[in-house]
Amino acid sequence: MATAVVNGQDVTEMGRVSSFKLSDKVVEATASGFKDRTKRRFSLPAGPRFDSRRSSTVSVCSSTSSYTGSSSEEDEVSPREKNQKNSKGSSDFCVKNISQAAFGRREIEIAEQEMPGIVALRKRATDDKPLKGAKIVGCTHINAQTAVLIETLVELGASVRWSACNIFSTQNEVAAALAEADHSIFAWRGESEEDFWWCIDKCINTENWQPNMILDDGGDATHLMLKKYPAMFKMIKGICEESVTGVHRLYQLSKAGKLTVPAMNVNDSVTKTMFDNLYSCRESIIDSLKRATDVMFGGKQVVICGYGEVGKGCCQALKGLGCTVYVTEIDPVCALQACMDGFRVMKLSEVIRQVDILVTATGNKNVVTRDHMDKMKNGAIVCNMGHSNTEIDVNSLRTPDLTWEKVRSQVDHVLWPDGKRIILLAEGRLVNLSCSSVPSFVVSITSCTQALALIELFNAPAGRYKSDVYLLPKKMDEYVASLHLPTFDAHLTELSDEQAKYMGLNKAGPFKPNYYRY
């Protein structure tokens, strides 16, 4: 079984990645707007995978620890103990409070205004129902933007059951709105570790419903189905994965020969990597830190661990607001990019004593250890922009000599015996979706890519895809981008016949080969 976290192995050796050719129907559809398309609790398995999302409620701390509160504490009755029904009489959901549905619906309507691409795709494909018969298990962040994707998939003919991939990122009112609309949603903000896995299990295992597709963010639904329901997993037609962490796990499964279904690597598509990882994080890192701490950025010293697309976005934003930014990297190519962009590349141990803000964005584990945090200055802020809560060794802070104080939701002070304190955000989980939100427009781009990948996998003839990890072609990236250009009143230049012949291109694209890096 694949481990839950990046363990330092070379990802280039974790399985073959193949590009694929779109089916004639999908190519035809992208050109013509799709007009021609015909309550159970359980014991978790032992092992490191199930420790990666360890909850940080008071119960985690032993009786010997000094602990005065946690940002994940909830005094209310657990949603699992409530008997709730929507206006249609259905109880096939588990959310915080179904009465919040009206507020959630307004949030979704606001998000739709900033998601032109996915709304356009919905309008073009609704009549043809390209996902009719698809039964999708979804495990992603549940917020207003994701709700637009979920309702689009349903409009295209799919039946869905959805859970959250992060215990802190769910918008309760949005989950309620989806449940009121008769979608099977199992998620609420502040789930416990057991709740988290129970919700995913409720989506996978239910009477008179056999899933045949998975839309995952982090690989948790894929992992649980493979681990607990292997026979069901073999009946899956395809997996769509959008995160670095989840794709890495798919590569590991492929390398080990345990991936028995085809999977689409949405994360490494241009429209996801560049726009979601770079442009989105460039805005959301500032929003998260401001909302959580009210920090002034000018003059602060910041270290960003990792200079991938997420790290690049964070560095650009913080530098633009007057921070002195350091970068840590293991990859010489990324390190050289950071140097050419004007950042000092250092080891974390060399700058840890002087930084005011530390941000992790590597996808790895134990990037920031207790030894590092022991050396940090008083009042330093520590947060994570990676998918999983493994980058910061939060468990090492749960010792008798340290005291935790809850400041506000998702903000904790960790106090040392000498009076020093650090500010830990979201208990080491994804800070932008725990402490703020992400731009709806960027989510529209990613959602379009996910929807098209699901359509392709679901409608592909038998044998087209083997049990492997596939990359999205440039044609699909270009189509997704074209759906969003009208928002900016952008006008593309068209190649003449002579120019197209000279360049060896089709006038309608694709305009770049699959290996091209933007």
UniProtKB/TrEMBL annotation:
Top-rank EC class of the record's enzyme: hydrolase
Region (Disordered): 30-91
UniProt superkingdom: Eukaryota
Sequence ranges assigned to domain S-adenosyl-L-homocysteine hydrolase NAD binding in this UniProt record: 277-438
Reactions accelerated catalytically: S-adenosyl-L-homocysteine + H2O = L-homocysteine + adenosine
A Gene Ontology BP annotation from the UniProt entry: one-carbon metabolic process
SUPFAM superfamilies listed in its UniProt record: Formate/glycerate dehydrogenase catalytic domain-like (SSF52283), NAD(P)-binding Rossmann-fold domains (SSF51735)
Cofactor: NAD(+)
Gene3D superfamilies: Adenosylhomocysteinase-like, NAD(P)-binding Rossmann-like Domain
EC number per UniProt: 3.13.2.1
Key words, A-Z: Hydrolase, NAD, One-carbon metabolism
GO molecular function: adenosylhomocysteinase activity
Keyword DNA damage: no
Pathway involvement of the protein, from the record: Amino-acid biosynthesis; L-homocysteine biosynthesis; L-homocysteine from S-adenosyl-L-homocysteine: step 1/1
Residues given in the record as NAD(+) binding sites: 308-313, 329, 432
PROSITE patterns linked to this entry: ADOHCYASE_1 (PS00738), ADOHCYASE_2 (PS00739)
Keyword Cell membrane: no
Transmembrane parts of this sequence: none
Cofactor binding note from Swiss-Prot or TrEMBL: Binds 1 NAD(+) per subunit.
GO CC, one annotated term: cytosol
Low complexity bias (residue ranges): 55-71
NCBIfam families hit by this protein: ahcY, PRK05476.2-3
Similarity remark: Belongs to the adenosylhomocysteinase family.
Name of the protein in its database record: Adenosylhomocysteinase
